[in-house]
Model the fold of this input.
Amino acid sequence: MQRLDTKLTLDMFWRQGLALLLGIIIWCVADPALAVDWTHPLSFSNAELSRRDFSGESLQAAEFSNANMELANFTNADLRGAVMSASVMTKANLHGADLTNAMVDQVNLTKADFERCSFQRSSFAPRHI
Done:
């Protein structure tokens, strides 16, 4: 009887050991590239960006909250999914910018240039145009 108990204990020990080893192998071999592909979106909240040149830059999902972007240049910039809220964009150049899926809310856009600008599926509620 004692021999049977010893055999069951050893069998259980080996199973637990193999399960632990398998868990470690899976944890070490799992593809970590899934987490590497995502980066935090750029944040320009409360920033002084007047006369800043963003022309041609990729600013997807960037956040511009309470920022001063007077006379900023966004010519041909990729602003898809960007959030622009409670900001000043007086005389900003958005010529050819892609604002698809962007949110523009309570932004002063007085005399801003929107020529050839894309606003597909965007939420657009400016303070002044």
